[in-house]
Amino acid sequence: MAERRAIQDDYPEDVAHCYGCGCLNEHGLHIRSFQEGDETVAVLTPRPYHIAIPGYVYGGLIASLIDCHCVGAAAAARHRADGLDPAVDPMPRFVTASLQVDFRKPTPLGVPLEVRARIEEVGRRKVAVAATLSAEGEVCATGRVVAVPMPEGMGSRPSS
Amino acid sequence: MAERRAIQDDYPEDVAHCYGCGCLNEHGLHIRSFQEGDETVAVLTPRPYHIAIPGYVYGGLIASLIDCHCVGAAAAARHRADGLDPAVDPMPRFVTASLQVDFRKPTPLGVPLEVRARIEEVGRRKVAVAATLSAEGEVCATGRVVAVPMPEGMGSRPSS
After folding, report:
1. Contact B100/A99, CB-based, under 8 Å?
2. Cα–Cα distance measured from residue B31 to residue B72, given in angstroms and rounded to the nearest whole number
């Protein structure tokens, strides 16, 4: 069976370097998002040093997970709304305009974290996405991202 | 001259492992926050692989910076409001209840990022902090954190 393709696997190669989700970033987290019905799902087990207080995941990782995953969900939603085919048509690259995370309970370290995103609104200029982050079946954080298409010219700045 | 102490240098050792700001996390970002008048300031130069789109900083790092820095500012504000002395009295450890980040313009990679936090409200059960993140003198992101005292018992979970 062919390996399942994540949304991020379809990002154009020149913009696939994100530390959170880019398949071309060798140091990165490699967040991978998959469509499951009306939801988009990603699972990631944090590394042992992604600590807040010992035993718990640090908030910046939770924010990163929600951010990158929702941006992927937004790109795929825009792609679908345009009637395009992931196997043929290039995936648009979205970036984050705003990110909100509510930390509802401490997130345990050492277990897989599951992020589920639902599209709230698909506009031409913005896509709004809501997410939950769960560990061991319990929702530990919720979030909301407003994603916008990558500004023209942003992909052409040389890397420092 | 003695090295200047950051707020995070005064966190109790058993809760100083945060990947974002803990002085005891050898893999971490080591965000360090200093009081300057009414503001709290941290400066960090992202690593070359903290990329979003090549040439720009990824949003998860910006969220982490704002998050950890504001939590530090909150702890120091609560400490001051209690009339305590950082040289003698242990710094309380706060955690994030909510995080909001607005990405106002792409943040260039390869230059120091400066985060400035201002306290909006110091309560017994929560401290609200607003922040700006600037690169080369331009505000690239703004944020707001509501921080709360670390729940009792949270520090006692063994690390996975």
Report:
1. yes
2. 10
Chain centroid, CA B17 distance in Å: 13
Tokens standing for residue A148? 């916008």
Tokens read off for A13: 């190669």
- Strands A34-36 and A39-44 come out as antiparallel
Q: How confident is the model at residue A159 (pLDDT cuts 50, 70, 90)?
A: very low
CA atoms within 13 A on the CB side of B113: 32
pTM: 0.95
Q: Is A54 close to B158, i.e. CB distance below 8 A?
A: yes
User: Burial code of A128-141, b = ≥16 C-beta within 10 A, e = fewer?
Assistant: bbbbbbbbeeeebb
pLDDT tens-digit readout, B75-91: 999 999 999 987 889 89
Average pLDDT, chain B: 93
The C-alpha atoms of residue B14 and residue B150 are separated, in whole angstroms, by 13
DSSP symbol at B90: P
Is residue A4 classed as helix, strand or coil in its secondary structure? coil
Rounded to 10 degrees, the C-alpha dihedral B27/B18/A62/A11 comes to: -20
What ipTM goes with this model? 0.94
Residues 6+ apart with CB under 8 A from A42: A31, A32, A33, A34, A65, A69, A72, A114, A115
Inter-chain residue contact B59 with A53, CB threshold 8 Å? no
